[in-house]
Amino acid sequence: MTAYKPQDALAHWTVQDMLRQCLTSGRMVEVVYRDSAGQVCIAHDVIRDLFNRAGRDFILLGRGALLSLDHVLTIDGLPPCSSCG
Fold this sequence. Notes:
The protein is of the alpha+beta class. It contains one helix and six strands. The chain has a single domain, classed as Roll (SH3 type barrels). It is 20% helix and 38% strand. It is globular. The mean pLDDT is 82.
């Protein structure tokens, strides 16, 4: 499976739009991601913040988990880019 790539501008903005909508609505999302040990993890939480640091996109979940978007496999069952999956 190919991970999210910031250079894929169209997919990037589609993902950003969806994440912003989740952020402003405060709705619960399911995020499937790989942790630093490579284990697949599932979080059911709200998105508290979105930001970019050092050229990488991150999401901050309500319970404090900070995830790099390039480690995210799916958000609400959808891959984070159009060419993934």
